[in-house]
Amino acid sequence: DMDAGVLESNWLTPVSRLLILVGRTLTSMLTTTITSIAMLALGSFLFGFKPTGNTFAAILTAIPMLVGLYGFGFAFAGIILFMREANTMVDVGSFLVQGFSGTNFPVKSLPYWLIPVSLMLPLTYGLDAIRGLLLKTRTLFPINVEIIILIVFMFVMLWLGSWFFYRVERRVRMLGTLGQH
Fold it and tell me: Which residues contact 32 (CB under 8 A, 6 or more apart)?
């Protein structure tokens, strides 16, 4: 919204700010879902990929992971409001979260002193549990423990992220710096 120049006008609408954030991601989630299904179909057709595990359980495991990521995203949006530099923050944040969560390589391959950082991210447990359920790989913790951690993260991150976002949003409005983005 800052890049498009509509942040201020959107902020003036009588809608919850978190609802605006959630609404912006629904189309992204739909696009990602369609792309993922197409990639799985293509992988199946070209390479013979077939998940050996429980697809339904993996989808159910993804739900608390995504909700927990929403809370993380709320806090991140607050940081962007405060710092007033969205593009750099999004690029750096995306790189760090992907690197520490095991998106591109197993978390166990990180240096031992960085593993605690990755264990603070809900995406780490979600991806690990989903891989374990679909591909029957070894997980960091038992899958039921990872799912419990994901559910706890879901509630904690939603509360913490929305609390932080509302505090920063109120502060930015009081300072009058929202239009300076």
Answer: none
- In our burial notation (b when 16+ CB lie closer than 10 A, e otherwise), range 5-32 reads eebeeebeeeeebbeebeeeeeeeeeee
Site of tokens 């679909």: 134
Up-side HSE of residue 66: CA atoms within 13 Å toward CB?
15
Q: Show Cβ contacts of residue 85 under 8 Å, excluding neighbours closer than 6 positions.
A: none
Instruction: Count the alpha carbons within 13 Å of 68 in the hemisphere toward its beta carbon.
Output: 23
In whole angstroms, what is the distance from residue 93 CA to residue 15 CA? Answer: 27
pLDDT category of residue 178 using cuts at 50, 70 and 90: low
Supply the Cα-derived Rg of the chain in whole angstroms.
Answer: 18
Share of the chain above pLDDT 90, in %: 14
Both tokens of 64, joined, read: 């608390």
CA angle 23, 27, 32 (to 5 degrees): 135
Question: Whole-prediction pTM value?
Answer: 0.74
| Gap between the Cα atoms of 171 and 102, Å rounded | 35
Q: Give me the chain's average pLDDT, please.
A: 83
